[in-house]
Amino acid sequence: MSSSSSWQFRAAGHHDVAAIVELVESTYRGDASRAGWTTEADLLDGHRTNAEEVRACIDRRQSLVLLAERDGVLGACAHVAVAGEDDAGYFGMFSVRPALQRGGVGSRVLDEAERIAREEWKLAVMRMTVIDARSELIAYYERRGYRRTGQTKPFPYGDERFGIPKRPDLRFEVLEKQLVR
Question: Is it true that domain 3-178 has CATH number 3.30.70.20?
Fold first, then answer.
């Protein structure tokens, strides 16, 4: 992995699981997440991830959990994987500590994830799913070159691994970006 500015990037190991779960939860759920702009606290209760799910991302073939650390402190993470469909990568579980949001580390993590997919895995496209009610998040990704595909996926109501919905109209929208230059 590489570094950018003072942020150091590396792939997570099993010893990082608890810190990753704490970071993801603080980014998306509960009152602590409201300090940042990426909170889903108004849309979902419950948990965003757990140790078993993070461990599975780490162990999966052609998959890694990318960590951004500065001075030994975890500031951000993302799951990057080969999607297993038509030369595409997958980007998800993107989390930046709320106090660090809007400071540039998220953009650096996204850049590094795209570099891994493009240069190391030779993938042409990066895909992700975003809850379509998250217009500010979709706009962020559009500024970064992602486009709305028009494809949607149903929100898995009743599956608490994705959280406990606070409204009945949630669904995922598929975004993608061409990586080949």
Answer: no
**Distance between CA atoms of 78 and 67, rounded to whole angstroms?**
7
Looking up tokens 């052609």 gives 62
Q: Residue 46 — φ and ψ, nearest 5°?
A: 80, -165
Give pTM, 2 decimals.
0.91
pLDDT, tens digit (0-9, with 9 covering 90-100), for 18-67: 999 999 988 888 777 777 777 787 888 888 899 999 999 999 999 999 99
49 secondary structure, DSSP code: -
- 94, 75 in Cβ contact below 8 A? no
Cα(48)–Cα(40) distance, integer angstroms: 9
Q: Where are the domains of the chain?
A: 3-178
80/15 Cα distance (integer angstroms): 18
